[in-house]
Amino acid sequence: MALEMYLDLFSQPCRSVYIFAKKNNIPFDYKKISLFEGYQYSEEFGKINLLRKAPAIKDGDFCLAESVAIMMYLAEKFHTADHWYPADLQKRARVNEYLSWQHSAIRIHGSKMLWFKLLIPKALGTEVPKEKMDNAVEDFNTSLNLFEEKFLQDKAFIVGDQISLADLVAIVEIMQPVGAGMDVFEDRPKLKAWKDRVRAEIGAELFDEAHQGILHCQEAVKTMDPKVLEHFKPKILRYFLS
Amino acid sequence: MAGRQAVKAYLDLLSQPCRALLIFLKHNKIPHSVELIALRKGQHKTPEFTKLNPMQKVPVLDDNGFVLTESDAILKYLATTYNVPDHWYPKLPEKRARVDEYAAWHHVIFPMMGQLKNDAKFEKALRDLDGTLDMLENMFLKRQAFLCGDDISLADLLAVCEIMQARVGGCSEGRSEISAVKTDSSDLLKWNRYLRDQRRISRYHTHVMHFPSCFWSAQSVEGYCTRLLNPTQPPRRRESFLAHVSMTSEQGGRNSDTFITSMHLAVITSDRFCAEFAHLNEPPMCSGRDILKDRPKLLSWRSRVQSALSDSFDEAHSVVYQIKQKLSAKL
Fold first, then answer.
1. Which of B50, B62, B66, B70 is the best substitution to test chain A (most A C-beta atoms within 10 A)?
2. Contact by Cβ (8 Å): A96, A86
3. Which residues neighbour B86 within 8 Å (Cβ) at sequence distance 6 or greater?
4. What are the chain A neighbours of B54 within 8 Å (beta carbons)?
5. Is B216 a residue whose pLDDT tops 50?
6. Angle at which helices B296-330 and B235-251 cross, to 10°
7. Strands A56-59 vs A29-32: parallel, antiparallel or unpaired
8. B77 interaction partners in chain A (CB closer than 8 Å)
9. What is the ipTM score, two decimals?
10. Is B68's CB within 8 Å of A150's CB?
11. pLDDT at B167
């Protein structure tokens, strides 16, 4: 039975899993889903993944969620090149350290940029209050500063001179606010240089293909019917604007 | 691994991931030393600590020069470096993936309760927890004894410390009264009567508590006091405890009587007690509530986890008590 992967490439963690699988020539059955349309709440998807999160995979009878867990599983199962998730325990610990930190840092603050700049105004019909927006931008910038100072430093990649899961997870998150129209790399030459290296390692074609959706997000949201985002309203109010 | 030098852990036992790490180290007999970092006192912001960890967070592990942050990364590193039983972080990819899945999900599901500053936000966080607890019961614990299988793993360790934190989380400024609640422990009533007879107490108020009872389960606190009051205990021990309490309270400028009263009240209000501990700026208050109260599946899971961890679980808390005593003595 083929490996099924349920992905929506608007979502950062879906992109990292997609890129990882494609780059490593892992055969999979691509199940394209739409989070905007609420597929994650469907009964069908509930059978795959009770956590109702994307990405999710179904490998035979084995179902798994969480992009980080998925990529570690695929790396092990398909014996991908060592640099993605090194066997050396200290190098691996460094990858794990980044993957852990980013959950409550870049991932949250980067995601907020897309919501605040595009999706919330569309869903609620009003702009996000200036103070909240300014705080969110500041949090995102602080995360980027920490990323550059603590994780990247003067290395080519996060864990050394080769790309790993850490860089893959980082790049997809950082590209999210780019999709919202933010020039993340302005005044950040080190970050830009790293991004170019990562894109080159992944392969420009694959990188661009995975990011096509998010980079055209602004136009997509402009023409979107606000009713599509109706089911996000309670979440928006609880998590972003409270 | 023979011949390995001890690791050093930088911990604040008020923090759930720090407790998880300490329990793991102790339970698996991994040679280690602990350096305590009191977040309440800003010790994570000193130049030395910032040099160690620019994120200014705990826990931090120093394995002979290899410095690692992030509790799940640290736990995975220790589990794979040392000869711990496989069930903690199984080698089989499908089993390991389950622990990885939980560890990733864990980051987003537990609100940072220990850092919340006012009751309203804490209450909201508790409400949000309901969905998480539903998921734990209906998905992770559906057909197995532990979160990721039939045996305890890193996932259970991380989760149980978070759930304990809900008991002690929540902050509020200032002090408050709590109403007296009846106790079942006759020994405690005796103690209460003794104090009143001695005219050492004036009002039933909770004030400063230099005692880390908030980090114990209500049962442990009650047990501790009951032991103290047991006639077989050397009277000197009880006297020295009370004397210590008086001394520290007075040194902190607070009434020792109300301190003793607080202690007593904290014990007798098993299900909901509030405590403030000494803090230079803001005295936080604890909720003492058991969020698993109406969830038998999670309650039995928690008992299994605590049984599996036994001594090391209690030790993590007794260490906290010792720290608090030292801190109180310095006031």
1. B70
2. no
3. none
4. 146, 149-150
5. no
6. 70
7. unpaired
8. 89-90, 92-93, 96
9. 0.93
10. no
11. 56
Q: Do B138 and A50 touch (CB under 8 A)?
A: yes
Q: For chain B, give the number of residues.
A: 331
Helix (H, G, I), strand (E, B) or coil at A218: helix
Residue B47: cis peptide before it, omega within 30 degrees of 0: no
Which of B6-15, B257-266, B306-315 is most confident? B6-15
Q: Rounded to the nearest 5 degrees, what angle is found at the Cα of B294, between the Cα atoms of B143 and B308?
A: 55
Rounded Cα distance between B73 and A96, Å, is 5
pTM, full prediction: 0.76
Give the pair of three-digit tokens for residue B35: 């350096």
CA B325 to chain centre: 15
Whole-angstrom distance, CA of residue B61 vs CA of residue B32: 10
Instruction: Specify the amino acid at residue B236.
Output: R
Report strand pairing: B32-36 vs B7-11: parallel
Look at residue A163 in the predicted model and tell me its pLDDT.
98
Q: Tell me the chain A residues in contact with residue B108 when contact means C-beta distances shorter than 8 Å.
A: 103-104
Give the dihedral sign, CA B112/B114/B118/B124. positive
Domains defined along chain A, listed by start: 3-80 (3.40.30.10), 89-241 (1.20.1050.10)
Residues B107, B113, B117, B121: what is their CA dihedral angle, to the nearest 10 degrees? 90
Six-digit token pair at A83? 């640099």
Give, in degrees to the nearest 5, the angle at Cα A77 between A74 and A78.
80
